[in-house]
Amino acid sequence: MIHARGLTRKFAVKRETVDAVRGIDLDVEAGRLVAVLGPNGAGKSTTLRMLTTLLPPTSGTATVAGRDIVADPAGVRARIGYVGQKNGAGENFRVRDELVTQGRCYGLTRAEADRRADEVLDRLELRPLAARRPGTLSGGQRRRLDIALGLVHRPGLLFLDEPTTGLDPQSRADVWEHILRLRAEYGTTILLTTHYLEEADTMAERVVVIDHGRIIADGTAARLKNDLAGDQVTITVHDAADTARAVAVAGRIAAPDGVSAEGVTVRLRVPRADAALPEYLRALEAAGVKAVTAEISRPTLDDVFLALTGRTLREGEGAAA
Ligand SMILES: Nc1ncnc2c1ncn2[C@@H]1O[C@H](COP(=O)(O)OP(=O)(O)OP(=O)(O)O)[C@@H](O)[C@H]1O
Asked: Do residues 199 and 176 make contact, with C-beta atoms less than 8 angstroms apart?
C-alpha cells in the first residue's frame, strides 16, 4: 500500500534550512494498522503530508495506493483518506450535509454521495448528530466527524494525523474503538501519528519510531521492548551507605550502563527481571544489605525511546501540553 524510499523534506526558514525529514524508507502492506510515534518536531506530520501529496518531497520517491506521489498526486488523493490535525468540517453545513458535500468533492453523484454519507454516519455512530452543526459537537464527536469525512469516498488507505490529541481519555478510547472497528470490518489500511505512548503500544500492530526526521525503530511494540529496552528491577534500601553497596552488587548482575541510583532507590535494567530479582536479593543479603522494597516492571515504549536516544518521549509530551 505504501512504498517510500529516501524521502526527505527541507524547509527554508529565514536563512536557515530545517531538515524536517532526512531519508525515510517505509513499506506498509494492505490491511495494516501502523502507528508513527515520535516527539514534537520529529517529522511525523511532514512525512504524512508528503505521502498524502499535500507537500512535495525535496528528494526521494514513494508510491501510495499504487500511484506515484509526484507523478500522479491526483491518483493518490482519489484512493486515500486524510484526516489532518485541524478539524476538517466547516461551520456552514450540518453534519450530514458536510459529508454529502465532501462526497461530491470526490466526484460522486448526488445519489452516491447521499448513500455514502449515510453509510459513514452509521459506521461512526454519528446518525443522532446528523442535523447538528459541527461547532456544537464535543471534541470526540468532532474527531469522529473528521474521520467520517476522510472515509466518504471509501478509501482503502486512511492517514490520521494525531487523531486523539487534545481529547479527554474517554473520547480517546471512543475514537480508538471506531478506528479499530473500521479496520476489522472493512480491512482499511491505517497509518496514524501519535505521541501517546500507550496508544501506540496497545492499539497498533506495528510501531514506527521517528526522531529528528529518521526512522530509528520499526517493529511490533513487544519486539521493540524486548530487543531494545529490557526489564527493570527497582529496590529501595535504608540509607546512602546501603545505596552505594547495592550499586556495587548490582554491577555483578546488570551491565554498567544498566545500573542507576537516586537517593535510596537503585534500578537495574536486565533482560529478565523475574530471574534477576531473586539473584540480586541473594547477592545483597550476602553483602549485608537489606532491601526495604523490591519490584520488577516490564519496559514501556518510552524506555525503548530512552534506550535509543538518551531522551524520554514524555519530556516531549510535557512540552506539547
Ligand atoms: N511549513 C514549514 N516551514 C518550516 N518548518 C517546518 C514546516 N513544517 C514543519 N516544519 C519543521 O519541520 C520539523 C518537523 O515538523 P513536523 O510537523 O513534521 O513534526 P511532528 O513530528 O509532526 O511534530 P508534532 O508532533 O508537533 O506535530 C519541525 O522542526 C518543524 O518546525
From this structure: yes
* Tens-place pLDDT, residues 14-46: 889 999 999 999 999 999 999 999 888 899 999
Q: 20 CB under 6 A from ligand 1?
A: yes
In the chain, the domains with their CATH numbers are 2-225 (3.40.50.300), 231-298 (3.30.70.2190)
Amino acid symbol at 318: G
Q: For a pocket test of ligand 1, which of 46, 50, 55, 309 has the largest count of ligand atoms closer than 8 A to its C-beta? A: 46
Q: Compute, in angstroms, the gap from residue 86 CA to the centroid of ligand 1.
A: 14
Find the 258 Cα to ligand 1 centroid distance in Å: 33
Angle at 161 between CA 22 and CA 144, to 5 degrees: 170
Task: Say whether the ipTM exceeds 0.90.
Answer: yes
Non-local CB neighbours of 185 within 8 Å, separated by 6+ positions: 123
Q: Is 198 helix (H, G, I), strand (E, B) or coil?
A: helix
